[in-house]
Specification:
Blueprint (H helix, E strand, L loop, with lengths): L3 E3 L12 H10 L1 E5 L3 H5 L20 H10 L4 E7 L25 H12 L2 E7 L24 H17 L5 E5 L5 H15 L4 E4 L11 H4 L5 E4 L12 E7 L2 E6 L2 E6 L15 H13 L2 E6 L10 H18 L1
Helix pairs in contact: 3-4, 5-6, 8-9
Length: about 325
């Protein structure tokens, strides 16, 4: 049975990427998570996946604005939800007709995102969700019951890999690939998925999200293999800050040390997608989140959802700019 245990011995590690590459990712420090898509227009984080593609209908979409805001707010990278739980895709995928190309605004949001990142000097990253309420293909990718009640079929895993191949071969170099809800892929499915991403984008860091944890333990049976430690809706624990070295026992005779940098993700407000009345957290709380992440040696990926117009709201922009000014003042 696989186990994890912290170790304070700093070897080079058995991880795929060299320490220098991982330290360079850590040096980015601060990024923008962008939750945008069908959920924005349905008004639910977890839609049924049965809504017509035309429900996605921004009237003033400006992806350039998103990334300019990220740059001006001091963010060094951005992660876009290319496909979330609804299954609706923000690029014109060849493997489904449930995408922006059949919506009311046919803009390839993924392409526009990568272009804007290059323009403003922000590292692009892609999020892709295994939980898919539209393309089930016989799978059960979410259950309130135990993890073993969720699974993916071979047909669904082939579909996911085909879509990720599109994303990682059509838009140039990508700095981070975020796979959400990786548990239903199963151990073998995750290893195959990880290997595909590493082959197509060898310089990218790969996040298999392990969900709402403080980063003190690795959910091996749900999120391994991974290059990063997901700390979702929590801050890293206060005992000496985040410790990135883990001893991973894949078999009784195969125990190796891995360096897994931590990434905290949490929304600017309280909802991942835009929701009426969901205002940004207080300036004091946002500054505290950023300072704690810096002091405890994790990156902060702050979610800033665009609204139904396709813009980051002015109230969110104001909060981000005040945060940056306060952070610069405190940091000297």
């Amino acid at each position: 049975m696989a186990t994890t245990q912290r170790t304070h011995v700093p070897p080079q590690g058995a991880q795929r990427l060299p320490l220098a590459k991982l330290h360079a990712w850590e040096a980015l420090g601060y990024g923008m998570f962008i939750h945008y898509g069908m959920s924005t227009f349905v008004g639910q984080e977890l839609p049924s996946g049965q809504e017509p593609s035309t429900v996605y209908a921004p009237v003033a979409l400006d992806v350039d604005q998103w990334i300019q805001v990220a740059r001006d707010a001091g963010m060094k990278y951005a992660i876009l939800t290319t496909k979330h739980v609804s299954g609706h895709c923000l690029w014109p995928s060849k493997h489904t007709d449930y995408h922006v190309g059949t919506s009311r605004d046919t803009t390839d949001v993924v392409g526009a995102f990568v272009t804007a990142c290059a323009k403003y000097g922000v590292m692009p990253g892609f999020y892709y969700c295994t939980w898919d309420n539209h393309h089930r293909l016989g799978s059960v990718t979410w259950s309130e019951a135990a993890l073993e009640r969720t699974f993916t079929t071979a047909a669904y895993r082939e579909f996911q890999m085909a879509q990720i191949e599109e994303l990682l071969t059509q838009y140039g170099p990508i700095g981070e690939v975020w796979v959400d809800i990786p548990g239903p892929l199963g151990n073998d499915g995750r290893r195959v998925q990880y290997a595909q991403i590493a082959r197509l984008q060898p310089e990218a860091v790969i996040m298999m999200n392990q969900g709402c944890t403080d980063g003190s333990a690795l959910r091996y049976d749900y999120a391994w293999p991974t290059d990063l430690m997901a700390i979702e809706r929590f801050l890293p624990h206060s005992n000496h800050g985040y410790e990135p070295w883990f001893s991973v026992a894949q078999t009784r005779s195969d125990v190796q040390d891995y360096y897994l940098p931590g990434e905290v993700c949490d929304p600017l407000g309280y909802e991942w997608f835009y929701a009426e009345g969901d205002r940004p957290r207080s300036d004091r709380e946002l500054l505290g989140m950023r300072l704690i992440c810096q002091e405890r040696h994790t990156n902060l990926l702050l979610d800033v959802p665009p609204d139904r117009h396709g813009l980051i709201p002015a109230e969110s922009v104001g909060a981000l700019m005040r945060l940056q000014r306060s952070f610069e003042k405190v940091s000297g």
